[in-house]
Amino acid sequence: MRLVRLSVTSIVACLMGFVALLLVGLHSMSEMQEKQAEIKALMALHHRIGEFSVASDALLVNRAAPALRESYRAEATSLKQTLAALAEAHPAARRAIHYVDFLVGTLSVVYEQPNGLPEESEARRQADSPLLLPQRSQAIISQVAGYGIELDAAIREVTSQRQAQIARDANWIAAGFAGAAALFGLFCIVAFGLIFRRINGPLRALSWAARRVEAGEHDVRVPIAGSDEFAELSRTFNRMLDQQDAMVETLSDALATRRALIDSLPAHIALLDGDGKILDVNDQWRHYGTINGYRGKALGVGSNYLSICRASEGSSAEEAFEVADGLQAVLQGERDAFALEYPCHSPDQRRWFRLMASRLAPDLETEGMLGAVVMHVDITERKLAEKELKRQAYRDPLTGLANRLGFTDAFSKHIARQGWNPHDILALLDIREMRNVNDAHGYDVGDQLLIEMARRLEHHFSDDTLVGRITGDQFILLLPGEDFASPRECLDQLADMFHRPIRLSELVIELAARGGYTLLGEEERSPETLLHEVEIALHETRRHDNSEFCRYDREMDRLAQQRIDLTRDLRRALEDDQFELHYQPKVDLTTGDVIGCEALIRWMHPERGMQMPGQFIPVAEQSQLIGPIGDWVLFQACRHLREWREAGLDLVRVSVNVSVDQFRSGGFTRKVREALEVHAIDPASLTLEITESVFSEESATLRQQLDDLHALGVRLSLDDFGTGYSSLLYLQQYPFDEIKIDMGFVRGILDEPLNRNIVAMILGISQVMGADTVAEGVETTAVRDVLLELGCRIGQGYYYSMPLEVEDFRWLLEKKSRLPLMPPPPGTS
Fold it and tell me: In what order do the strands lie in the sheet with 474-479?
């Protein structure tokens, strides 16, 4: 039976026994009360019998009234009835009834005699004086007295017997209650004894097993008896022990695995307690100690790590003290971890280690720190790799000179070592036409050229000179001012070094250099600031196409800032649509009819007003904004062409200038096609004017794009012919439909015979190619006449019209006017 069921059953049974005992007690109490009442009734009967005897004597001696006699007889009848209830159990009660009858009968005989005593006077009877009976009457009195005595004896016997019976009954009642109480107590003892037995045995077994397990005996098991809760608890306890054994085995395996894993790690690992004492070390720690001649067999186990560090001497003592302080902070809980990289070199080997100390979890029993784990990781390879990376990061891989980062680092160290010298010179140079060398001889020759130039620079100057190569063909030098009489002497030597030919195998290459420089001066500045200054100075040299060395001044910074501001404003102009197109007519020189126009961009700056292309196009080309601006011009010109067509005007060809930067991305043809399709424009009405600078980017991709544009039906015009990279070979390879004569030749056509001959030659080339020729810069009637004489039929310039706003040019188309609108003043040529 389960323990809960047994307990509930015992409790219910005890409660039922208690209720039964209570009922027995109540019944016994009731019986005892009945016996007490019966005793009281016997005592009352005994008293009544005594009074009845006395009354009998009184009635016999004294003559009583009839009422008293009737009362006497009624009492006799009542006594007989009471005695009759006892007569069956007590024979004395029957005798008492007979005696009562004898008394009543005797008295009745006495009172019913017809001839009383004659000598008794009436007066004596009325006075109720005692009867003076004869001797016979005296016998009756004695008889009555005897009956009374017998009656009293009989009732005494009945009372005595009844009291004895009642006493026996009371004893039995008490014995019964005591027996019931004893049985109830015995049942409770048995029930709770059984429960105790069912609890005590398993509980003692569990307690015994728990103590044995606590003592370390893991093979103990609790015996199982029955199927109650203690049996289930015992089974659970045994299963827990089984699981604990499995966990211990697993933990042992895990610990062994962890130990093997820790031993297999390349780090040297030690476990410390809260005071810094070494508790255990791994195999790598032991191996390192062994190969380094450590003589202690324990290899540090049992020693205090902090004491060892604080007792260090020699070159590494400073790092050892730092380790001791950091590890002390970890052990005291002031920090979770500590790390330090330190050298550990030997005479024949350079080594570095990284120490890492990590705090272990708190000990819950002592509420303190259990200790820490210290690891020493060999980082020699990483350090060597870092040094190599740093060397590569600070050195130019081709020439071995310092690169930009290395030069700034070397400059900082130079200043820290020798101080700031106001006379020192920082110069930045680049090789002119380096691209031509690469194109003509290949990049291998170009690399050899740079290497030879680096060696020349290194060997020419003193050891205090810093030399670096910061980009492809740019060299930077810090030149001590004391080595030269003046900056000009220093720069002349640099120029002379670059102008001297370089012999590479069978090649002899002549070079030239240009550069910018700055004096350190009195104001100390960072290396980055100085580099910025010489870069701006070099930029100015390039911008003016100067072979001299430009010296940095603050005005260059201001101009550079202006370019930056202008670039920012150009970006905003694109976003806010601040640009607009003006159109300059292309005119038939014979008739003055407008046969085309050139779209020219203008920038309506919100603060500076109208800006001409020369003021912002160079900056747009430098800032990579020329592409988006050129795309805007293309789409805007096509939109105006569509508007003129929808207005029913005679369409003219619109020329749009295209920068070489727009071809670099390779998607310009797609944009042109998109603009034509969006505005539904006939490709033949669009002319793309390309400057000769496009030939500097000559490539298969460029040629393919021009061929695709020509196949699309767009006209191609070569702008500013004769001023740049003109080549008959280029003219033969590219499909140009129009050649524009640069205005520099046209304006001098009256004064310079060479210009007249050049124009005539260009006209001849155009005729051979089958291309139209447009003369730019026609500003007088005389120039027009010479052009007509030479065979040129198309021109544009201020003689005919200045560039017109869209509304004005549209009015010109609507009026179909010939140009110029007003004839030139008389006498003008």
Answer: 466-469, 474-479, 425-431, 513-519, 549-551
482 & 597 share domain: no
Question: Distance between CA atoms of 28 and 42, rounded to whole angstroms?
Answer: 21
CA distance 231 to 237: 10
pLDDT tens digit sequence for 280-290: 888 888 877 77
Q: Provide the pLDDT for residue 632.
A: 96
In a domain, 250, yes or no: no
Residue 478: CATH number of its domain: 3.30.70.270
645 touches 611 (CB < 8 A): no
Phi first, then psi, for residue 173 (nearest 5°) are: -65, -45
Cα 446-452-456 angle, rounded to 5 deg: 145
223 in a domain, yes or no?
A: no
Beta strands in 571-677 (DSSP E): 579-588, 594-605, 609-611, 653-658
Task: Please report whether residue 634 resides in a domain.
Answer: yes
Residue among 154, 117, 151 nearest 136 (CA): 117
Q: Are residues 507 and 639 in the same domain?
A: no
Angle, helices 626-646 vs 806-815, to 10°: value is: 30
- Give CA angle at 241 (238, 247), nearest 5°: 145
- 466's enclosing H/E stretch is strand 466-469
Pairing between strand 352-359 and 371-378? Answer: antiparallel
Mean pLDDT of 365-388: 78
Domain total of the chain: 4
Instruction: Convert the pLDDT of each residue in 139-180 to its tens digit.
Output: 777 777 777 787 778 778 778 877 787 888 888 888 888 888
Whether the per-residue pLDDT at 336 is higher than 80: the answer is yes
What is the bridge-based pairing of β-strands 513-519 and 502-504? unpaired
Indicate if 775 and 640 belong to the same structural domain.
yes
The whole-angstrom separation of Cα 295 and Cα 318 is 24
Give kind and range of the element (H or E) at residue 231.
helix 229-264
pLDDT tier at 123, thresholds 50, 70, 90: very low
In this prediction, residues 303-332 reach a mean pLDDT of 85
Rounded Cα distance, 440 and 293, in Å: 65
Mean pLDDT highest for which of 293-307, 357-371, 793-807? Answer: 793-807
Q: Which residue's structure tokens are 């059984």?
A: 194
Is there a single domain that holds both residue 74 and residue 105?
yes
- In terms of domains, do 408 and 356 share one? no
Cα dihedral sign, 14-19-22-27 = negative
The pLDDT of residue 406: 92
Count CA atoms within 13 Å of residue 795 on its CB side: 33
d(CA 281, CA 270): 4
524 phi/psi in degrees, rounded to 5:
-75, 135
Range of the domain at 523: 395-552
Tell me if 563 is assigned to some domain: no
User: Which tens digit of pLDDT belongs to each residue from 56-80?
Assistant: 777 777 666 777 777 877 888 888 8
Q: What is the pLDDT of residues 539-584, one digit of tens each?
A: 888 877 666 788 899 888 888 888 889 999 999 999 999 999 999 9
**Cα–Cα distance for residue pair 735/710, rounded to 1 Å:** 7
Task: Give the whole-angstrom CA distance, residue 769 versus residue 763.
Answer: 10
Which two tokens mark 587?
Answer: 């005119």
The pLDDT tens digits of the residues spanning 696-720 come to 666 778 888 999 999 999 999 998 8
Looking at residue 577, its amino acid is D
The residue among 152, 167, 190 that closes a domain is 190
Axis-axis angle for helices 527-543, 404-418 (nearest 10):
120
pLDDT in tens, 615-636: 999 889 888 899 999 999 999 9
Our measurement of the distance from residue 447's CA atom to the centroid of its chain's CA atoms, rounded to an integer in Å, reads 50
Are 481 and 420 a contacting pair, CB within 8 Å?
no
Highest mean pLDDT among 181-190, 265-274, 338-347, 790-799: 790-799
d(CA 252, CA 373): 21
